[in-house]
Amino acid sequence: MTRDQIKDVIVEIIQDIDEDADVKSISPDLPLRDQLDLDSMDFLDIVMELRKRYQLQVPEADYPELASLTSCVNYLEPRLKDV
Amino acid sequence: MIMPYNSIDKAADVYDVVVVGSGLGGLTTANRLANAGHKILLVEHHHRLGGLATWFKRKGHIFDISLHGFPHGMLKTCRKYWNRAIMDSIVQLKNIVFDNPQFTIKTTFDKEDFTSILTNHFKVPRSSVDDFFNTVAGMNFYDDRTMTTRELFEQFFPGRSDVHRLLMEPISYANGSNFDDPAITYGIVFSNFMNKGVFTFSGGTDKLIGMMVEELEKNGVTICTNSRVERIVIDQKQVRGVIVNGRLIETSCVVSNAGILNTIEDLAGRESFSAEFLEKIKPVKVNNSSCQVYMGIREGEKLDDIGDLLFTSTAPVYDVDEMLDIETRSRTFSLYYPKTRPGHDRYTVVASMNGRFDDWANLPEELYKDEKKKMIERSLVDLERYIPDIRQKCDWLEAATPRTFQRYTLHTKGSSFGTKFEGLEVSRSLFNDVKGLFHVGSVGIIMSGWLGAINYGVIVANDADAYLRS
Q1: In what order do the strands lie in the sheet with B96-100?
Q2: CATH number of A43's domain
Q3: Which of B36, B462, B469 sits opposite A44 (nearest CB)?
Q4: pLDDT level of residue A34 (50, 70, 90 thresholds)
Q5: Is A46 among the domain residues?
Q6: Number of domains in chain A
Q7: Which of A41, A51, A52 sits opposite B458 (nearest CB)?
């Protein structure tokens, strides 16, 4: 997957988690938690959805890597390159 | 509402996951894993699903056992992990009353109102109140846990036993914790409530569980009631199945919603675990149990609105031993007006007290009955202060004790709030010791109550899903 595709997937997952989230206004480099009404349970949902879609295991120690849209893409790019 | 009654004979021979027990944690894990595409069997020893999220009917009355009020976070949690219709049935309880020798107040139980009460009624400086709220809001479960709740209160409100009582008493009823428990457990739970107040489920527990069952069936979960798991079969540190009513169901993954100690000692057996792991369970203490008195108001009679939830006590100060005593003078009254179950035009009152299993466990039958009668009488005397003619209006009175809680939940010592903090780590690390074995249920104080149990169900579903896909 390309960086743009990965970004679209993350945004789509966030939209599924919170229908009311204003995903268009997300600044990619700022923490998602500061911009949207996301809590630690929401990040768990993202992890579970990535596993369901791509069989990708994100260990608990790596959860901080999902903090912003850009850090998500950086973390996922090598892991989803063959998808 | 009709509950699905499936005998275990109807179950298949093999499942991806067997969920043992149908408390809110077990139900949620089953639903999440089914949504993730796994084949799930949910087994419950009782004829009814819900665990302690339950109800019973007498003479036209419907009594809720644990529907007393949960935090605003339930809305989002129900929408995400169940469905929007369940979320849409959640409504706010706006009249929370405290009445004890130190103070009498009425509150919406949210940050704004508490700040106002603390500054205006209790005359605490605004800066101390703000500092306290900011401190508890910033607490995480992985933070330092050496500070006790007592120390936390002393730091912000030194010597103010009245303020300590206001802050502690409702949480003691919510999860059995007290001054001696870690400050972080207090901070996390209290902040959840302070977020936006106290909420309930319109339609009652029976409606909620019915809606959850519908969702589970839609998602393909096989549900068997009256099906008691005798044993989790473990071979060479790997789950192989469960024995239910004498029948072997094969699976490589079991999520136990039994008590954590029941899971380890009764279902899996101590021999299944390493010596190192058994060492870790030694400090795990189960929380206290509860007593309740159920009062049904005669059909046609009405009650004035005296509040939704009344934290009452005639004890001079907050005292954990007093609250656990068989003759405690501290109890909460949950008032269920017709608005609780729209269309069912009845009133009920449930008095809840904390209690110790050991005080009740060995009472001879006559003495046990006698103590229950005395508890009903004490509750009526207390309630007469708010509803003077309660005795004339009541046509059903019944009491539950820690023995009752144990009979229906099978929990070690009838625990109604799971375990103290140490239980969380043990619950979370079970699968590191035995492959495919998971636990969900009230543990560690923070993972208790309706919201804690459901959210923990999601966390454990994630652990189990990771294992199943590895």
Answers
A1: B103-107, B96-100, B309-313, B330-336, B348-355, B289-297, B394-400
A2: 1.10.1200.10
A3: B462
A4: confident
A5: yes
A6: 1
A7: A41
